[in-house]
Amino acid sequence: MLTRETSKSKFPSSVRVLKIADAYPVDELTQVFTGQDAVISALPASSASLSKRIVDAAVAAGVKRLIPSEFGNNTSEAAAAQVPLYARKAEAARYLDERAREGGERGEGKGLSWTAIHCGQFFDWGLESGWLNYDLSRREVTIYDSGDRRWSTSNIGTVGTAVVKVLSRPLDDAAIRNKHLLVSSFTVSQNEVLQLLEEVDREGKKWDVKRLSSEAALEDAKKADESEALKVRVLMLLYADGEDKGANFESDDRLANEVLGLEKEDLRSVIDKLVNY
Ligand SMILES: NC(=O)c1ccc[n+]([C@@H]2O[C@H](COP(=O)([O-])OP(=O)(O)OC[C@H]3O[C@@H](n4cnc5c(N)ncnc54)[C@H](OP(=O)(O)O)[C@@H]3O)[C@@H](O)[C@H]2O)c1
Fold this sequence. Notes:
With about 280 residues, the chain is an alpha/beta fold.
């Protein structure tokens, strides 16, 4: 585990923890990456330059495999145009691919390879924390537009499993080598989630449903602080009717669940567990 010198993060005693200067300098990174087969980055994607330093150090240290800090939505052009964070992720992903190709030119299977895991929004975390805009304790939700737009989403454990599955595959496996993989626990709509929340409610209570257009939400976001604006821009990628900006991973048959051997998950039982246990 790599952590910053001034970090307050706590790790289990069984984990070997290495410290690095807060600025993540390439020379220090190269030193700690040397001898590592794989690097998994879960750094904030707020800076493309930080992501690029990770790539430079991984190449310099001879790391064989890098899983970059994606772990979110598809960062297609349409999505990146709406969410600047995704534009930075896409820029970092292009850089990673370029640097990996340089290594590839030295011979098949040589140099750095990468696999990016896109999982949509975290479902269990997003529902429990209120990030997906369902207030479980008050039974309140705002449904945007029709509420029928479908979006792919993953439980956090599934994302971890996807990482492990990628690491277990041979480096030269064409199904995962230098690829963006889209995975999801399920593809849902706002209305479907609401219906199940009401169905599993042991007190049989109905939810208080407000409605808002995605245009109005995006307009309001212009006056919101940075974190709220980011959230609305991301949520409207999933929830807004109209042009699909890549939130439904099933629509273009690009879901990699089968490629990775991820097990099927049941939406109702996940929601039931979150609400009732
Ligand atoms: N799909 C979803 O719903 C979803 C939700 C949240 C996040 N994500 C994605 O998951 C990834 C990680 O996000 P996160 O929210 O977990 O990130 P985060 O908490 O902001 O940062 C992760 C770790 O990086 C280190 N860090 C923080 N700021 C740093 C900085 N400026 N420079 C260097 N290191 C820094 C910290 O570790 P130390 O203190 O140990 O150094 C921190 O615990 C991102 O790609 C993000 O987009 C996805």
